[in-house]
Amino acid sequence: MRGGSIRAAGDCAPNASTQLVARCTDELECGRMLSRVTAFIAVASMLTACDERTLPPAPDNLDRGISIYADANYLGVSAQITSDIGDLKSFTGPCAHEIEYGAIQDWNDCVSSIHVAPGWRAIVFRDDDFSGQRLEVTADVPNLQLVPGSCNHDGLNDCITSIKVFAP
Question: How confident is the model at residue 38 (pLDDT cuts 50, 70, 90)?
Answer without folding.
Answer: low
